[in-house]
Design brief:
8-stranded mixed β-sheet; alpha/beta; 7 helices; globular; Rossmann fold; single chain
Length: about 210
């Protein structure tokens, strides 16, 4: 498996053909990953996404607009390929899967480019700003014959899984209520106001109810 990730405003790619590249040490079971960053999602990516990916793959490249953050990620995860241009990263590393992590209002053009370059694509929720963007991404995926996925990581958070198990132990669920509480005082509106909070972070509550 080879994976490229977007760390900051990053794009990530991941090979999923069941075969891994041999490392320079000759370990044919090791996995490789490249990480790319674009836009303004650096700290969350550093704190959550990269540590998880680093457990199962060897990150081989990163694309990040912020040079300081790029060097920090490269050093922390021992990544050799450091890029400030995600297109150049994809052309050079030739990833099978790109993991695009960035604010929703920056995602569509980059996601479209990644798919048009023939890369499978993973993005985080929400998929797009509008239903039309989502439909067009589906069209591009079919046209370019790529695999796409949208992640909702909190669905697998221990607190959510444990709560679900506790509810199921009581008996069948006939009524459910969900709340999503998050301090946004220092962050400002989600995606600079380009998307409402329910569609953005609040969708976690909707997904939990499902």
């Amino acid at each position: 498996m080879e994976c490229v990730v977007d760390t900051g405003q990053a794009l990530s790619k991941e090979r999923t053909h069941g075969k891994s590249k041999e490392s320079k040490e000759g370990d044919s079971h090791s996995s490789e990953a490249a990480t790319g960053g674009i836009h303004r999602r650096g700290r969350p990516s550093l704190g959550r996404t990269l540590p998880v990916l680093a457990r199962g793959v060897e990150i081989c490249a990163v694309s990040e607009l912020n040079e300081e953050r790029l060097q920090k990620v490269g050093k922390q995860y021992r990544i050799k390929g450091l890029y400030t241009d995600y297109i150049r990263m994809i052309e050079t590393e030739k990833p099978d899967i790109v993991y695009a992590i960035m604010p929703t209002h920056h995602l569509y053009d980059i996601a479209a480019t990644v798919m048009e370059m023939g890369c499978n694509l993973v993005v985080e929720k929400p998929l797009s700003l509008t239903a039309e963007q989502a439909r067009m991404m589906a069209v591009l995926a079919r046209k370019n014959k790529v695999i796409t996925a949208v992640t909702l990581q909190r669905r697998f958070a221990p607190v959510i899984r444990t709560g679900k198990e506790m509810c199921e132990e009581v008996g069948p669920i006939h009524t459910a209520e969900a709340q999503f509480v998050k301090c946004m005082l220092e962050r400002g509106p989600a995606s600079r106001g380009a998307i409402d909070l329910l569609t953005g972070d609040g969708v976690h509550a909707v997904d939990t109810l499902r």
